[in-house]
């Protein structure tokens, strides 16, 4: 590839290098929104259909698809730089304590490092209270679906819009974190919002913002996303350097109570089932993996699981530990988390009474109603006429449903729909032997 000019495109969540792409069908087979086709030996993507699941990143052998994340180059240009740390980061460094990882981030140049587990506790209390009140008020239908994984929410809006009322209408922990941290730091330093740069250190190619595509996103110059795999090598060197030097107490370098990981509750959230493990919910369920998530959403749509109060869904297998842009094997990471839980123990640092007073003031309620989310993430497909359906069925009858993807579509049904819409030719189907008569 030396000397070859790269041509990048992509969505808000991924970058695609057309020059590197070899036209394999792996990506179009795994895309849950059928956003990819193969044309002239290259992948062609409908950017507006991308929900940031990262499945194409996992399966591309040429690494032509990468996460649309930032790097550390601009750190020294920021007046106040803040690392918002997902607990998944701790799991990437077996035998290393969270405080050493947070110190390593400061050594990289971040002025403040925020442990998300502080805000996970807030979310836990708020969720438990919502469920208790929902038993009598029935504000939302059972089962409630966790809003924590943004890919799940986009998937629901895109493929299962009738389930949007099931999504717990509370702010996600990362949104709570961003709001509270920014306000506290602005007040502490006496600065305006544009002086505080938030860096989200992510295990998956997604960001907390609600907008779906690069063409539609709002200008946001005060927050960026960094992939764990992007920062891993530099952070590992810093941690090793610190371990070889004289120990320094992390407690002497913090100014806010949210800068320290006190218990194993936070790291536990990275695993499938970690969200609900320490929550006071009578009937709950945890499901991980993209195919499994889709299957359970189909079951919920059919009216099943109405006896379950809360379902934790993660599109990555083993939960966020299996994110597409993590650095180490998800099972090694899971082992590291289990050891960390044994060492740190479980428990909450925040007062339930204090959180409930904030709950009463509406602090945790999201302003994104189901209709708005469907408008943002939905497929917006035009209604299909009976005549169109008949034409699609006629083509499928001729193809006999082999789903080989040689035509460049993910399956025969999608190919038939593309033919009817005039986006491809029937002659692209090798099973028809070039016979274009329909």
Describe what is shown at a glance:
The protein is an alpha/beta fold and 438 residues long.
Report on this structure.
Residues 1-6 and 208-219 have low confidence and may be disordered. A hairpin with a 3-residue loop joins β1 and β2. It is built from 16 helices and twelve strands. The strands form four sheets. It has a four-stranded parallel sheet, with helices on both faces. It folds into three domains: 1-68, Alpha-Beta Plaits, CATH 3.30.70; 75-377, no CATH class; 386-438, Orthogonal Bundle (3-methyladenine DNA Glycosylase II, Chain A, domain 3). The chain has helices at 26-30, 55-59, 88-91, 98-108, 117-137, 150-159, 173-189, 228-244, 265-268, 274-277, 290-301, 330-344, 352-360, 370-377, 386-399, 412-420, and strands at residues 8-10, 14-17, 36-39, 42-45, 65-67, 80-85, 112-115, 144-145, 196-202, 223-227, 284-288, 310-314. With 438 residues, the protein is α/β, with parallel strands linked by helices.
